[in-house]
Amino acid sequence: MRPRSLNELMNTMDEFKGKSLSWHMTDGVIELALDRAPANEIGLAMLEDLERFVTMLPALELKASALVIYSKQKAGFSAGADLRELYTQAQKMEMASAVKGVRDFLQRIHAVMNRLDTSPLTTIAAVHGVCFGGGFELALACDLIVADKMARFCFPELRLGIIPCFGGIPRLKRDVGNAVVRDLLLTGRSINATKALAVGLASQVAAEGEALRLARATAAQTTKFDRTTAAAAKQFIKPLPDEELRREIDIFCELFTRPAVMEALRKFVESTDAMPYLP
Amino acid sequence: MKTIEQTTEEILTLAATHFKVPRAGLQASDDFYKKLGIDSLQALELLTRLENHFGVELPDYEVQGVSDFSTLASRIQSRL
């Protein structure tokens, strides 16, 4: 049944359930739950649902103060880009077409990340388990990261001959010292929540299974503030690194054309190793 | 400073507790993937639990290819 009034239309936006995520709003806080097995890989399905969410954001922002993003998947917040989908799709086409498809995907996911990044809401990622690659980049688009003590953060892209490409490098550079950026990118190692807190990536560490509760408490605190003031403060302290974000896509697309990348992706996808994300 | 034997014992106890296997059934030379029946994500969980327990950082590349408790203990011991 179609909503009959503007109010009804606004209310229908307060909750949604898609293929890979859902959201609902309670007491001025929007909760966006990632929920795509096995580990919230970000492929076309997740992208489309995220696009749907950011399309609805302007209306949701009129009634909310905060946004909490979390995962319903046991494995963690998100394992990052759907590399199996990327490899499978790229295999079906000529390299020029594959690069065009990749660039289109990246521009779309960047638009989503940029919209989340610049939302006037206070945005909080409640992170547990794996928070790798594109999943880490999604968390970095948020204002605050509340990390479960079992969370692990990682940019494994260099292991595959590519770089993070959902806006992660400019955002990481914005948020932490360059030595930390180099450590994470150039070693591809994962770090735990305690380390993430120590270097300033995470704002709080929660006991096991408590990240969402802490994020909700933090979100509730933000509902006490004047929204115009909070939005103005955020805009002032969190600039969007536009030029670097655009450059990141260009560098990724240049690197993606090399045969070594497709070979690394093939090895990753076909691997039966215990820890397949390691080269 | 813990001895390597103490470190190994603590790893075996922690692994037995969290992956719900009898402690008596675990030995330092065991392949923990097989003995605990864990996959890559659970191995990462074990790594995190060990880091939290011992208060050390254990980069993934240091445990790449490591599958027995004894070698794992020596990697941790070198960071205590």
Please describe the structure with a list of short key phrases separated by commas or semicolons.
heterodimer, A: 279 residues, alpha/beta, 2-enoyl-CoA Hydratase, Chain A, domain 1, seven-stranded mixed sheet, four-stranded mixed sheet, 12 helices, 11 strands, 50% helix, globular, B: 80 residues, mainly alpha, Non-ribosomal Peptide Synthetase Peptidyl Carrier Protein, Chain A, 5 helices, 60% helix
Characterise this structure.
By secondary structure, chain A is of the alpha/beta class. Chain A has a single domain, classed as Alpha-Beta Complex (2-enoyl-CoA Hydratase, Chain A, domain 1). Chain A has helices at residues 6-12, 44-61, 83-91, 95-117, 133-141, 168-175, 178-187, 193-198, 211-222, 227-237, 242-256, 259-270, and strands at residues 15-17, 21-26, 29-34, 66-71, 76-78, 122-127, 130-132, 144-148, 152-154, 190-192, 204-206. In chain A, the strands form two sheets. In chain A, strands 1-2-3-4-6-8-11 form a seven-stranded mixed β-sheet, sandwiched between helices. Chain A has a four-stranded mixed β-sheet with strand order 5-7-9-10. In chain A, strand 1 and strand 2 (21-26) form a beta hairpin. The longest helix of chain A has 23 residues, at 95-117. Chain A is globular and about 55 Å long. The relative contact order of chain A is 0.14. The model of chain A has no long low-confidence stretch (mean pLDDT 92). Chain B has 80 residues and is an all-alpha fold. Chain B has a single domain (4-77), classed as Non-ribosomal Peptide Synthetase Peptidyl Carrier Protein, Chain A. Helix content of chain B is 60%, strand content 0%. Chain B contains five helices and no strands. Chain B has helices at 4-18, 32-36, 40-54, 60-63, 69-77. Chains A and B meet through strand 10 of A and helix 3 of B.
